[in-house]
Amino acid sequence: MAKTHVTMKVNGAEVEGLVEPRTLLVHFIRENLGMTGTHIGCETTHCGACTVDIDGMSVKSCTMFAVQADGSDITTVEGMANADGTLSALQEGFRMMHGLQCGFCTPGMIMRAHRLLKENPSPSEQEIRMGISGNICRCTGYQNIVKAIQYASAKINGVEFREAAE
Amino acid sequence: MNDMTPTREQRSAALEGMGCKRKRVEDIRFTQGKGNYVDDVKLPGMLHGDFVRSPHPHARVKKIDDSEALKVPGVLAVITAETLKTVNLAWMPTLAGDVQMVLADGKVLFQNQEVAFVVATDRYAADDGINKVIVEYEPLPPLVDPFKSMDKDAPVLREDLAGKTSGAHGPRKHHNHIFEWTVGDKELTDSAFNKAEVTIKEMISYHRTHPSPLETCQCVCSFDKIKGELTIYGTFQAPHVIRTVVSLIAKLPEQKIHVIAPDIGGGFGNKVGAYPGYICAAVASIVTGKPVKWVEDRIENLTATSFARDYHMTTEIAATKDGKVTGLRVHVLADHGAFDACADPSKWPAGFFNIVTGSYDFPTAHLAVDGVYTNKAPGGVAYRCSFRVTEAAYCIERAMDILAQKLNMDPAELRLKNFIKPEQFPYHSALGWEYDSGDYHTAMRKMMETTGYAALRKEQAEKRAAFARGETREIMGLGVSFFTEIVGAGPSKNCDILGIAMFDSCEIRMHPTGAGIARMGTKSQGQGHETTWAQIIATEIGIPADNIMVEEGNTDTAPYGLGTYGSRSTPVAGAAIAMAARKIKAKAQMIAAYKLEVHEDDLEFDIDGFRVKGLPEKFMSMKDICWAAYNSVPPGMEPGLEAVSYYDPPNMTYPFGAYLCVMDIDVDTGVYKVRRFYALDDCGTRINPMIIEGQVHGGLTEAFAIAMGQEIRYDDTGNVVTGSFMDFFMPTAVETPHWETDFTVTPSPHHPIGAKGVGESPNVGGVPAFSNAVNDAFSFLGSTHIQMPHDFWRNWKAAKALGAVA
């Protein structure tokens, strides 16, 4: 099948590649760019493990073609750590609040939470639960994921994080 | 001592040992997308394989034409049963003593069964290839209903078994019968029923569901023709067993097979079994001489890899008028699908279902299980449970509620009246188990006090009265469940998988600088072993957990172990760790005695080193002992500080718990709301409370899904109607309730550190709590039992059937 040339910015770096028009974005990221943090869980847009940030929106990369992302600005989980290599507030929140177990949904969760906090830096618990409803987790039961996002929100806003009483 | 000397508390805290909420070491890589899962494995020249699957649930395969497929650019080979026959791999042994087709051999027996394997240069080309393979089928009548499987005119499913009157577990009564398994004293139980003042009988179904970990099953197989070695990266919960099985069926020497299970994205039992994809990828690699990757998609995972449950349990309890149980009788019809590929220890065709007497002191019980074939996917797995314990717990917990209803007793009171008493442990159950320890009354009472149970019952009575007066359309249910698990399989005297005894293992090597590595026979799929195993070692030998690296999943380096499933890691491997650590400690004590110039008996272990009794200043730290182990051991002693332990447990462990679900249901819409969910777990010694709570949250979420909507459903023609996350209920953060956790601690008396295991408990105890809540809500309208799953539609149907909705 004839291939098309695409260029995009991924985690701040210009990248390019030749892809079939039918190549999914997630495959381009994982196979062509070798960035395997973005995961594939369902291939039907339900689970959210492949969520990346494209031009300021959360997008499930398993149901978007790489050619559709031509010219766009993409952030994946590999671009989430602080410049000095330390964990960002969100990544730290997931670790501190035990917001992950097998870690497979985590990159997608972090990418979704990243956009959620950009749009609403101080979400309520209900807003967080709605905000991550496109991301499925099979291990942690969401409660600690919500706390992880609350932790990050507090840290980003420079306020003290207090766990709600059980 | 000067001010800089750390206190005992500081020294102890520095270890981050058992009881500490140590943050997980795994998270550093997982939160940065630096995990290494099977699909991340990329080998030079790697090919990709994909399956042609059957659209029919039951059909003869007349012809497979691969000529067009082989013309597709990138397609290199099409493997069929005929190809596999040349290497004697057309059929493979199952974990349950049956055999299973790897690729359709003559006919197909369930929808989406593997028919041919297309190997191509990339996954897109492989997909093009499967669409060009032309398979000619002759449809046969499908058998969907297990209750009709042993009818006289039921179609013969397994033609390979034609005429065979006995199977792996004894006589077969019918051409679709797999086994009958009976346990207990029939005569005594029948007599208890004949004399009973009160009896109940109900057919309680636990529907077919699926573990569906977020990462599907997958592998990369690479055969090196020069060395004659096969390397397999795979999503394996039990890598060593996979290596042994591959060696036995492929006739390759075991040392030339390297099985590597890297990070695994959830298993829940789904990744215990052996699937055709593994065999086909290995054969394809041998045929092509190149590495071959097979990655299952979600639809394949849901429809063709191991299901869970599908038990139909006719349950009877005999009791006195005042609510003392006197007998239990259960008959199970078990739908095992097209091949009996259930993951159970060899001697237990229905797993540990005979824990069905639960937490109650039944003087006698009798159990019979019939396994049958149907045109459904094979491979009942221990989905977040140890071998059919979830089904058993659901059965008895539903039945106790039905008995309470009949006796007009409170379900919690009925349970308190029948619990095994603390002084009865170790307790011998009527169906053959020895429960190690428990204090059920304390757990139940703590649950009742903490949740304000009496007040909740009062509120329910008021609500029912208001409903009767037409003031509300909402009904309230209280779901009580109390469960006893059986985990830690198992003692090799009665537990094996394919003849391999179920011990587990740990090897610890301490290095001169006081750092060490522990290698394990287990394999974490998210349970946090890298974190908790190091905590056990920290407490046992006094080296900080941060200085211990834990490695799992590589059969070249890890000692042989049976792997991680059925909550066996902590009860079995956790014990192996403690025993290996104690061997290290014993040698360390000899070294310390030599260095401190005292007799070994004059030393005592003190947090992070050895101290001379009565002379507190004469102390040698474990860190210093590690150094000495490599340069100044006592004369005649071998240098080094390492140990390996293969732990064969003397018994299973029996964690337990008391759960309560408070639910409101709107009868006009069937919409339910989980108002509260409280879970008290007793898993014995708690290694890392943070991880325990996390596992409880996760298990409860899966229990919620199963009880309240999740089902693998087939229509009458054998078509799977729940083949994607669109129609197979996956709860999100929106539906999932808030969880309250609590605990008591009753250590296991026979386990080196008293730990019992917890990962699956919330699934075992959670499902009956949800179902009992729904059933309790409807009970005052006259129903005794409503089958799961209790989604909105079924709730509405129940309300309508009971006359609550016009």
Automatic annotation (TrEMBL), chain A:
Pfam families: Fer2, Fer2_2. The keyword Repressor does not apply. Keywords: 2Fe-2S, Iron, Iron-sulfur, Metal-binding, Oxidoreductase. One of its GO terms (molecular function) is 2 iron, 2 sulfur cluster binding. The keyword Oxidoreductase applies. Gene3D superfamilies: 3.10.20.30, [2Fe-2S]-binding domain. SUPFAM superfamilies: 2Fe-2S ferredoxin-like, CO dehydrogenase ISP C-domain like. Residues 4-80 form the 2Fe-2S ferredoxin-type domain. This is (2Fe-2S)-binding protein. It comes from Bradyrhizobium guangzhouense.
From TrEMBL, chain B:
Residues 32-141 form the Aldehyde oxidase/xanthine dehydrogenase a/b hammerhead domain. It holds the Pfam family Ald_Xan_dh_C. Its EC number is 1.2.5.3. The keyword Signal does not apply. Keywords: Copper, Metal-binding, Molybdenum, Oxidoreductase. Dimer of heterotrimers. Each heterotrimer consists of a large, a medium and a small subunit. Catalyzes the oxidation of carbon monoxide to carbon dioxide. This is Carbon monoxide dehydrogenase large chain. It comes from Bradyrhizobium guangzhouense.
